[in-house]
């Protein structure tokens, strides 16, 4: 079984193998850390805020009463230690639960349960050599009276004889060059594990500085270390949202990795046209290709191709821009490295290699601009011929450049084509901030501070300019499909503008602080994300109509940095008009805390139910050999009746309920009380009226009263409440339109007509 704690003030007891909640203990205050020790069977230890004091925390013991109820009040608290740190890594229990040790800032305190005594030990802020002595983590030896502490300067101290305030001793281990982030002893205590920002797991043997082993290149800084109860495996969690499983002989076993949490996402969110994967910054100097359907990383592409040095304050090469061509054949990346005086820039063009199924470097351009590159985009073409491919880069050096493919005349060149600059443009020596192509690629829009310029991308003539002072242009994009004659722009002074390219005039404008502007590549819709009163809100609109088709306020509390539309493999069927804009594409957002958010038209139950449970087998019958045979027979009989033009009523057996499954498959000794299970079981047997379609309800009424008149009051009285119950609810809380009574009567007459003659055609 497993205990968990939460900021909601509860401790929950789980049967984690079956995912069943057994009991809930309500403590009543925020729980910041939880410790359970075998020596204290009826108690757990939690860290809570100290009442009446800010940023002050206590370690307290919580008595867990053995009542039969599922929800229990746990109000019996006793303070163990005052002035502890809220981090779980700063408190640890000693051998056999005889003592608990906690560190905060420069102080170590040890509480002995039997003696009910606290010993405190302090360190100076810096050592004689200038090292940082601040405590960062703690671990206790499982068999001996020994405490290991990690420090800000990379040192590890092993404390002994701490039963005495003045006669204590400690020895020092030192390999880490920066902060020690976590420590853990092996099961028998023969080795000590440590980790830090170097991405190296260090194994110290018998507390000796001379005997140590290393497992390097684990990808990112190690945040936490855990040891399995049998001692055969170690587990590390990392700052990049990764979990690594390691065998006890320091051999890599496997990695659990979803979306990599990068140090800083500068590339934005981009979709790979080939795989429909989400592409953004991953490991330092890499692009991650993340599959949204499976929550797994497809692969990582090394762009910088240099070893990353894990050291704070060191200026290293950053991957800042990425763009794909329309069919995914070409990939463009921008790298930069900036120190106090110099700026290094590299523009790389990669071509997709069908043999290796990956991208291969084609062209490297050093210093394509004299200042930071602010935007980059490809011209959308069918890419049948490389001659039509074009890349545009905009920069703070007041220039935008167009790059095209040329034949490589060098006989020693490894490829036949490469990229070269074809045109350089500017506007009144203003900084170029954004660029984008129209849908057909004939026009290029480049924003220069407060002005948007529109260029002919073939002849490079300046066609027109737009301006909406005050404020610089933050985002621009062209309309698509039927709205391709519009250009949309957002300013940093809180205005959203729509210009008509045919009349060269402002079509409409709205006062909205837009941070992100993202067009859907498969429809006319454009998503605008605003930041209003410390909340991110979403507005979806078509350029030809200033009224939004969808407004989602308070989308999240964090600031949304990027958004992208991902095309669906199969268009989604939705009955709501407000959801039509999500039919062909799904929108994803990335916040400043690197949380990936999406909007869904499905209910929470549908999203959380595995796809295997959503499969319907022969009219929702349970999947058993008998039901498969019975279902096949019913399907044949139903088909015969339909061919004869008959109306057939089918019973709707109950779904194979998850509640019933859990009841039958869960071991009896971990089941909750019968009073808790009974309502769930009874509810699972009830048939919801919402499962009936409008046609089925009307047909039932007709079958029951086929001898009565069409417009009888009795039939209307029966049909109306059924119709009210079965109307589908709109996702945004509105009800669909209902048919009038006269329309219902006409519909019943049509149903009674024989259309079997159509089958002959």
TrEMBL record:
Its main location: nucleus. One of its GO terms (biological process) is rRNA processing. It is found in: Nucleus, Nucleolus. It comes from the Eukaryota. GO terms for molecular function: RNA binding. One of its GO terms (cellular component) is small-subunit processome. Keywords: Nucleus, Repeat, Ribosome biogenesis, rRNA processing, Transcription, WD repeat. The keyword rRNA processing applies. InterPro entries: Beta-prop_WDR75_2nd, WD40/YVTN_repeat-like_dom_sf, WD40_repeat_CS, WD40_repeat_dom_sf, WD40_rpt, WDR75. Pfam families: Beta-prop_WDR75_1st, Beta-prop_WDR75_2nd. The keyword Isomerase does not apply. WD repeats lie at residues 1-24. This is WDR75 protein. It comes from Eudromia elegans (Elegant crested-tinamou). The lineage of its organism: Eukaryota, Metazoa, Chordata, Craniata, Vertebrata.
